[in-house]
Write a structure and sequence with these properties.
two-stranded antiparallel ribbon, alpha+beta, 5 helices
């Protein structure tokens, strides 16, 4: 296992699950304290390399009980958003593209696309994602593609 400071610096002291800042000086016993999440081992992928990411202790503990949830920003106007974490995992494994949300206007779709790419740059830094906005039926589909 890597040093907590090395993993924290790698992830810019942001929780990879909730994207909120992690205080490097907080107690590791505190819910908001830093912890290292060994993602591949936690999912039971035999032979897969371990991916160490920084997480709040509470986020890391919760992930052990339920599938990780990466929330959409409440500042976005998206309808029927897909589960970000599961979409990312599917696209990383199989490639292709997936509709991840619908937006009522082009500007809402543009804002959601920019936010999603920014968020994914921290959630899955080793994967190049692209977004596409497809108009139709009075709405705009936000499509995510693994590049």
């Amino acid at each position: 296992m890597s040093d907590l400071n090395d993993v924290g610096q790698q992830d810019n002291w942001r929780c990879w699950l909730c994207d909120a800042p992690v205080d490097p000086d907080a107690s590791t016993n505190s819910d908001l304290g830093p912890s290292i999440d060994n993602f591949a081992a936690a999912k039971g992928k035999k032979g897969a390399p371990a991916i160490e990411r920084l997480a709040h202790r509470a986020c890391n503990t919760m992930k052990g009980k339920i599938a990780p949830v990466v929330p959409w920003s409440q500042d976005l106007f998206v309808v029927d958003p897909s589960t970000i974490f599961e979409s990312v995992e599917r696209l990383k494994a199989k490639g292709g593209r997936e509709v991840v949300a619908r937006c009522p206007s082009q500007s809402d779709a543009d804002q959601a696309a920019a936010w999603l790419l920014d968020r994914l740059s921290r959630l899955a830094p080793g994967v190049a994602f692209e977004t596409q906005i497809n108009p139709g039926g009075g709405q705009f589909m936000l499509v995510l593609r693994a590049g």
